[in-house]
Write the C-alpha cells for this entry.
Amino acid sequence: MQVPAIAITPFSQKLKAPFLKHQISILQINLGKICNLACTHCHVEASPTRTEELTPDICQQLIEIIHRFPQIQTVDLTGGAPEMLYGFRALVKAARELGKEAIARSNLTIYFEKGYSDVPEFFAQNQVRVVASMPCYLEDNVDKMRGKGVFDQSIQALQWLNRLGYGSDPDLILDLVYNPPLPNSNKFALAPKQQGLEIAYKTHLQEHFGIVFNNLFTIANLPIGRTKFHLRHRKLEEEYSQFLESHFNPDTLDRLMCRNQLSVDYQGNIYDCDFNQMENLPARSPNGEYLTVAKILELGSLDIIQKIQTDDYCYGCTAGSGSSCGGALL
C-alpha cells in the first residue's frame, strides 16, 4: 500500500504581505564549487572533483560593481573553498580598498593544503572577516560531518588565526558556524538557542585548546543539496519539510538575508540568496527578466528586483529563531 504524500503548504501562501526586496547592501559571491572537502551537509555539493569556478570576465565585472555602488557595505565570498577559487584575492582587495567589509567563508583546513599556507596572513593583512565552519566543538561530530581529521586541522587553524590576532584584535573578526547533525530518524530538532550554544563553544574551546573567537552563528540544514539526498535516501524529506513548516515564525521575515543581498554565481547570474542559487531559482526583474552582473552594470542599479523568489525550503530559514548566513535572526 502506497503511503500518501505529506502535504506542505506552499511557502508563498504563508506570506501575508508581498515579499519584497529592501535596498541592497550585501554582495554575496559564490566563486565556484571546487573544495578540498566534501562535507555531508554541503548544500553546494562542493568537492575536490568539481571544476566550476569564476571566470576572469565575470570577476572583472564584479570588481566594477564593487567600485560603482557605494551602497554595498559587505562583499561576502563563499564557495566551495573560496580561497582556492579564481578571483578570491582580487575581490577581497577591491572591497577592502574601498573600506567595505570582506567576508571569507572558510573551511579552515584549506590552510594546510599545498599553495594555501599564506592564506591566514593574507586574511590578517587585509582585515578579512573569517566565518569558519565548525559544526560542533566535539571531534567525533565534526569528523562525521566533514571527514576524518578535519576537527584536528580546524583546531590548528583556529589557533593559527588566534596567533595573528583573530578573536582578540577588534579589526580581526573570527566567527564560527554551527550546523545541526543530519537526522537519521524523524526525531528532528531545530538548532539550539544561539546565545547559549555560543557560551558552550567558547568555554570548551578556551579550556581545551586556548581558542578565542567573536561570534557563533547557528545555521539550519535546508532540504537542498547533499542534505536533501541524505533525507531522501532515508525517506525523511517530506517529514523534515513538514517539521520546518510546523515551526514557521513570521517574525523572521523582515530579517531574512534575501531581503538586502544579491547572490551571484560563478557565471554571473543573480539570485536572491545562495540557497536559491543552488536550487536554480534565479532572481527576476519586475518584467520577469533573469538578471546578470552584466545587466546590472548596463542598467546602473542594484535595486532592480522587487519581489523575492521563494520555494518550500524557505521554511528552513524561517523556522524557530530563523537562520541566515549571519546565524539566528531572533
